[in-house]
Amino acid sequence: MEIEENVRSRELRGLAAWATQALLIAIPLSGMFFLLDVPQRLDWQVFHEQYIGLFLALSLGAIFLLIPGSRRHVQRIPWYDALAAALGLFVGLYVFVKFPEISNSLGDIYTERVILGAITVILLAEACRRLVGWPLVIIASVFIFYAFFAYLFPGDFYGRGWSIGRLATYLYLDANGIIGQPLQIGASIVLVFVLFGEALYAIGGAAFLSDFALAMMGRFRGGQAKIAIVSSSLFGNISGSAVANVVVDGAFTIPMMKKAGYPAPVAAAIEAVASTGGQIMPPVMGAAAFLIAEYLAIPYAQVALAALIPALLYYIALFIQVDLLAARNGIHGLPPAELPRLLPVLRRSAGFVVPLTVLIIWMFFLNRRPEVAGLLAVASALAVGFLTPGVKLGPRELLNILINTGRGMLEIAAITGLAGVVIGVLQLTGLGFTLTLTLLNVGQNSAILLLVLTAIVSIILGMGMPTTAVYVLLAVLVAPGLSKLGILPIAAHLFIFYFGMLSMVTPPVCLASYAAASIGKTDPVRTGWEAMRLCAIAYVVPFLFVFSPALLLIGSWHAVAISIATAIVGAVLLGIGLVGYLFHPIGVLKRFLFLVAAAGLLIPVVETGTYTSLTWAINAGGLLLAVIMIVIEWLARSRRQESKIAAAAKASVGGKWL
C-alpha cells in the first residue's frame, strides 16, 4: 500500500500506510455511524461530545502520521511524530470514553485533565501549522497569552488572568472550547458535503461538468474562458475549495485559454476567480456557509437563498468581462468538430442530476438537516454510479472515496479545533464582550468606517488562512458588533464571509491566484491584480447588501425585483468600464462614465428611511447615463460601419477605373 496524496503528504508504505489509511477511512465511517443516529437505534446513549472526541482522535492521529513537519521527513515518520499521533489518539479517545463521567464534573480541575488539555492545544497548533501555516497559530497564541496575562492590559481590556489548570480544562472539555460549535459543524455537516463531493467526483461528475461546459459555451467567442467559468463554478460549488478547484480544473482550462489568445496572467486569473466563486454559489457553498446557518440558528436554505443574487452578480460581471476581452482581442470559439454535442452529453450523464436534485429537495423544500440531506445525496450518487454504464464503482473505488474524504477533513479538523481555542478564550475571559463594545464605539462615529476596517481585517486574516478559519474568527469577534449597530445578522455574516473568501484572489498573498499562476507559468502577483479586476464587483456588493438587504431577497417583492434588475445591468456596465470595450475599444473618459453608471445602478433601492428618494434618484441617474453612453457607442459603431462600406465602395470604383 502506498499513500501519495500531494506534495505536503508523506509517501508511506507498509504498516504505516495501512494504519494511516485505516484512520482516514474511519473518519467518514464513524461520522455516518453517529450522524445517522445508529447508536440510538441500538439503545446506546451517547453524548454528541463523545463523537466529537472520536473525530478529533482520528484526525490528529492521521495528521501526524501523514503530514510531515518539514521537508526532511517526507519519506519516514520520526519518533516524535509517531508519539504525537499516539497522543492525538489518546486525548480524543479520552473524551470519547470518559465524557459521560466527565459531564457531571466539568468545572472540576484534575491533573490528568490539565495535562491532556495542554497537550491537545499544542497538538492542534502544530497540526494547524503543518496544514495551513502560521497565521491561525499566531492568533491563537496571542489569545492564550491574553488569557494568562490579562491583568497587564490597560483600560477595558484589563482582566484577572487565568491559571493554566483552569484554562486548559475549560478549553479541552467545555462546549465553548475545542469540542465546541466549529468542530461539531466540521465533524458533521462539512464532513458529509466533503463526502458528497468525493462521491460525485468518483462517478465521473467532473468529466460531466467539463463536457457540459464545452457543449454549452465552446462555440461562442471566448468560449475557452466561458468553459472555465461554467465548469469551475459548478465544480467549485461541489468542492467548496478554491485552491483544489483551481488545481483540478485549471490544468485543463488555463492552457486552453492561453492557446486561444488570452494572456497567461488573464487566463490564470479567470480560473482563480471562477474557482473562488464556487464558495459563494448556492446550492452547496463553502464550509463557512454552513457555519453561518448554525451561528444564526436558521435553516441553511435561508443562507443559500440570501447568497444567490450576490453570487449571480459575481459571475455575470466575470462572464461579461471575458466576453468583451474576447471581442477586443479577436478570440473566437472552438471549432464544432472539437466540441461534444449537448444532447448526447445530457443523455449520457442525466443521472448526475439525481444527487443534486435529491439534495435540493431534501434541504430546501423539505427543510431537513443538511447532514441528512447530504447523506441521502451521497447514497443517490453511488446508486447512479452503479447504474451508469462505463462507471467503475467497486470496493477499491469506494475505499478511495472514504480515504479522500478523510484526507479532506484533516484541514477542517485542525482549523476548527484551534478556532475553538480562540472562542474558548473569548468566552472565559469576557474578551468577546469587550471587543464588541470597542467596535460599537467605532461604529457610533461611522458605520462605513467599521465595515471598511472589517473588510480589510477579513482580507488580511485570509492571507494564508482558509475562508472557514477567517469566518469563524470574525463571526465571534466582529459580527456581534455589526449586528448591534442595526445591521441584519445575516448581512453581517455574509459580509465577513465574502471578504474572507476574497483573500484567495487579493494580493499579496492570494492562494488561488498563486495556484493558477503556477499552472499558467506566469507571474503570481500580476495574476492576483488581474483577478482583482475580474471580480471587482465582489468588493462592492457586500457593502450594498449591508445597507439595503434587497439584494439578499429581503424586502417587498417590487423593491427586490427592481434592485436585482438594476444590479444586473450595473454588473454588465461594470464589465464594459473595466475592459474598455463595447462595440469597439473605448477611451478612458467613456470607461469612467460607464463605471459611474454601473455604480448608480448597483446601489439597491431603500424602501423606507431618509435615503429612499436618494436611492431612486441614483438608480434613475445611472440608468439615464447608461442609455446615453450605449446610444453614443451604437451611433459611433454605425458611423464606422458606414465609413468602411464607403471606403470599400470607393476602392472598388477606383479599381475599375484603373
Radius of gyration: 27 Å
Our count of domains comes out at 3
Instruction: Determine the number of helices (DSSP H or I, runs of at least 4 residues).
Output: 29
Please count the beta strands (DSSP E, at least 2 residues each): 2
Percent of residues in helices: over 70%
Give an overview of the whole structure.
The chain has 658 residues and is mainly alpha-helical. The chain folds into 3 domains: 2-179, no CATH class; 186-554, no CATH class; 559-658. Helices cover 74% and strands 1% of the residues. The protein has 29 helices and 2 strands. The chain has helices at residues 14-35, 38-41, 48-66, 79-102, 111-132, 135-149, 164-173, 181-202, 205-217, 223-239, 242-260, 264-276, 287-296, 300-329, 342-348, 353-365, 370-387, 395-429, 431-445, 447-462, 467-477, 479-484, 489-502, 511-520, 524-534, 541-547, 557-579, 588-602, 612-657, and strands at 2-3, 12-13. The chain has a two-stranded antiparallel ribbon with strand order 1-2. A hairpin with an 8-residue loop joins β1 (2-3) and β2 (12-13). α3 crosses α18 (395-429), α21 packs antiparallel against α23 (489-502) and α28 (588-602) packs antiparallel against α29 (612-657). The longest helix has 46 residues, at 612-657. It is globular, with a radius of gyration of 27 Å. The termini are far apart. The model is unreliable at 1-7 (pLDDT under 50).
